[in-house]
Amino acid sequence: MSRLDELIEEALREEDREIIEATSEQGWFQLGLSQFSGKLGWVTWVIMITQAILFLAGVWCAIYFFNTTELLSAVKWGLSGAVLILMATQLKLSLMPKMQADRVLREMKRLELILASHRS
To answer: Which stretches are transmembrane (predicted)?
Structure first.
């Protein structure tokens, strides 16, 4: 915790301590898990379930790819597996902008608190 954070906490009244705790900086895993709650938490659940299904289907295709002996079958299973795994990866990466936006909004709330404490 930085010195600025300590000064902000000292300047706030008891009622405002809840606000400062709500805007405290979150770690990577805590920020990721927070995506599963809130108004749009259901979207994250749908994306993650779909991503898991695509990944498992891609692994299944990869197993068949490595077990086949014919060239045409290998191309069919290999291309299908690669596309499914790439789709799963893209879906998982689609959550990153929301995580970054949440970090920015949290810091904006912190700045608002700083300004509010300077006014009073």
So the answer is: 42-65, 77-95
Digit-coded pLDDT (tens) for 66-80: 999 999 999 999 999
3-class SS string, the chain: CCHHHHHHHHHCCCCCHHHHHHCCCCCHHHHHHHHHCCCCHHHHHHHHHHHHHHHHHHHHHHHHHHHCCCHHHHHHHHHHHHHHHHHHHHHHHCCHHHHHHHHHHHHHHHHHHHHHHHHC
Assessment of whether the complete model's pTM goes beyond 0.70: no
Handedness of CA 93, 41, 101, 25 (dihedral sign): negative
